[in-house]
Specification:
41% of the residues lie in helices and 17% in strands. By secondary structure, it is α/β, with parallel strands linked by helices. The protein has a seven-stranded parallel sheet, with helices on both faces. It is globular and about 50 Å long.
């Protein structure tokens, strides 16, 4: 193993988009630490799949909605970096963990709002803040948004508002971290066939067909449409891409 091996932290890496991101980062020879909230077996299966390719990987439990747990998470994370990766810093932070809640604006509860805010905005804000001392100069931060921050689909008011906040935050982070050579970008997936939001896009045939019909490429997204774009942003080829919102949606609602 070379001493200058890059290490990525992917939140929510046990399944769906996060799993595909982790696998695509590994394809580029990047070591991966992925977090999971409750699905430990799934996370360990992804770790095993990555290790089979000759790249190092580990999994750590993290609830990104529980901001008070971040200090103990980073204590564990730092120990893991030393023990398994022979380093005390990492290079790439991918803020991927997320949930979907479908509720009209009129019916969204304060509990739903707070949960979405903690996971998609407040959690990302403070997890990234606490990660800063551990990120190498010239590192990369990738935040996840959504096509729903550009166009409106009823039922996602609170979720999309948090993603709009992330898009603004990303520009501020890019500006303030630029002196350290750290780039910060947004990847905004369109509708994807995963178990996200209870598998709404994957399992609802009418919704799937509707989204496909309003997408230039004529289908809904798959998990493997997204991870390679995240991996690209962590490559040397993307070194001059900064503070950008890259929508990966096949051209939906153009």
């Amino acid at each position: 193993m070379t001493m200058n091996k890059k290490v990525a932290l992917v939140t929510g890496g046990s399944r769906g988009l996060g799993k595909d991101m982790a696998l695509n980062l590994a394809k580029k020879g990047i070591d991966v630490i992925l977090t999971y909230k409750s699905k430990k077996e799934e996370a360990l299966a992804v770790v095993a799949e990555i290790k089979q390719t000759g790249v190092n990987a580990e999994a750590l439990q993290l609830d990104t909605a529980d901001i008070k747990s971040f200090d103990s998470f980073f204590a564990s994370f730092s120990a893991l970096l030393q023990a398994s990766f022979n380093t005390d810093h990492f290079d790439f932070l991918i803020n991927n963990a997320g949930i979907g809640i479908h509720a009209s604006f009129a019916e969204t509860t304060e509990e739903q709002f707070d949960l979405l805010m903690n996971i998609h905005f407040k959690g990302v804000f403070f997890l990234t803040q606490k990660a800063l001392p551990l990120i190498n100069e010239g590192g990369r931060i990738i935040n996840l948004s959504s096509g729903l921050a550009r166009f409106s689909t009823p039922g996602f008011a609170a979720y999309a508002a948090m993603k709009g906040a992330i898009e603004t935050l990303t520009k501020y982070m890019a500006k303030e971290l630029g002196a350290r050579g750290i780039t910060v970008n947004v990847v905004a997936p369109g509708a994807i066939e995963t178990d996200f939001g209870g598998g709404m896009v994957r399992d609802n045939a009418a919704m799937n067909k509707f989204i496909a019909s309003s997408t230039a490429l004529g289908r809904v997204g798959r998990a493997d449409d997204i991870g390679s774009v995240v991996a690209f942003l962590c490559s040397e080829d993307a070194k001059w891409v900064n503070a950008q919102r890259i929508e990966v949606s096949g051209g939906v609602n153009l």
